[in-house]
Amino acid sequence: MILYLKQSMEPGNLLFHVMDELGHPCYQVFIKKHRFEKCVYIETMEQEKVAAIHCIGFSKMLRGRVLINGENRLTLLCSFAASEPLFKIKGQTWVFRGDVLLGNFDVVDVDRTVIFIHGKQWTPQVRNGYTLQIEQPEFVIESLCISVLIDAFASSGECTQTVAELN
After folding, report:
1. Are 66 and 51 in contact (CB under 8 A)?
2. What is the mean pLDDT of residues 99-126?
């Protein structure tokens, strides 16, 4: 299964449009900012919420807790305290492979099963966007959540206070 994430250029809380292989919209990604955290919501086009990501950013660290159907599924940790950024998935046996900051990476299980492949997309239809090739269909929403969090951070620092604070 392939999904395309296109960064929203519209004013407001919309972060990404998510389209299927044929270019049909299937999800929208919104952000709500609270005093100490930011919440990212993924909704179907019928406005049914499928996931929530609660982001807390500190000067050198980001934590995104992913809830699907109200259940805590995983936590994504991004640390910039070391010389090399560290991206870690807690709650699953998955690891990153590739260059997460440049947007070209895979998420694989410890047995080397590929969960999904993520890459930058520069076609005229998508422009500022990303391709998400999901190899394990049972993890569509989890894969989308990880990608949304990484892409929101990489594109504008939306899930943290500011990009400058993380560098």
Report:
1. yes
2. 86
